[in-house]
Amino acid sequence: MRHRPTDEPLREVRPHPVDAHGNHLPEPAGLDPATVDPAVLSALLHRHGWQRRGGAGGRYGRWTPPGPGNGGTSLLVPESRAFPDSEDLLAEALVALARSGTPSAREVLVGLAVPSDEIHWWRDVPSGPAGAAPWTVEEQLRTAARQMLLAGALAGRERAGYYGARHRRSAAAMLADVLVGPAAHGHLTAFVPVDTGRLLSVRLHQALHAVREAIDYQRATGGMDAFDAAVEAGVSRELTEALVALVRGTEGARIAVEWAPAAAVPEDCASTAEPVEFSPGDLSVLREAGARYLRDEPSVPVRVTGTVVRMRRSGPRGAGTVRLRVIAGAEVPHVRVTLDEEDYRIAGHAHLVGLPVRVHGRLESRGGFRRLTGALGVVPVQVDEAERDRLMKSLQENLDFFEEACSGDDCD
């Protein structure tokens, strides 16, 4: 019987927002004109390239969509609700946006339905014949964008130069509400809801500027010291790897974070900022910084409580390796730990009767914080009857594995 290796990559707890919505933004149904702020609508139209082309001053503005050939389409948007027919105009504008074939119209509607910070990525990739691009280009953009969002979510959990498997589940959960639009012409937009994702947007905004400054410092001085200080701003190996994935194979890339017009600008953040730009010339520095973070991140002393899910040793006696599903004590889903003969026997007995164990050790950065070294003091942990029943049920479901692991008097 084959089993997944113990150092397998973490499986996603929740589906990718893009996959969950079939690569499209959901329909922003249920918009009530009575709840729409005219100033927010005007700000969103301006952000997404619509042009104001006159209108009655102090009463309403006439907006036309971006691009050629749209001169016949326009929206009348009141400047405030003081205008007598403001709600009627807003209702007409929402209907026109919903019926519009302009991609930016959908993005404006989403921004109204779910007040969101917008994160934009651009990749300058040489076009193929007739302006076409290989299908892998869009995939690479989406993959890099997701890596970058995850790096921002990780920085919202803790500052570290390298996270490995730590905080992955909680960080991935932060992305569950993020909406992602279609990738077109090397441009992708993510909508991060203010209510659940503002911290992600702030950390990513700060980290991007910090890594840009650190690269510029390295070019000017030859030193990598600025990357050490940049950790406090949210820079990590995970972010440098995301930037490498974004920039590799391009002539350059840009990222911009724009704050939701319906919410206040975050403290210590500029209300408007130019996109942060990166070029292929930055790749060597980014790779060096990532290697530095991986090398220098220290191991962490922990006291882990977990259930035994795998046991293995080479013979019927001596030390063995145990895999624990972590319940408490470390922000990782599983750890591997090598135990001496006595602790290995205790772990086996605890598993047989459906009890978790507690063990002290150091969570090693090598391998992604998936291994506990210097383990000592393995003790069973008492749990209430309901939890014990749940653990025993899990044991029965995986009994075929445990019988294999305990073959040859391995768990006596």
TrEMBL record:
Residues 1-34 are annotated as: Disordered. Residues 1-24 have a biased composition (Basic and acidic residues). This is Uncharacterized protein. The lineage of its organism: Bacteria, Bacillati, Actinomycetota, Actinomycetes, Kitasatosporales.
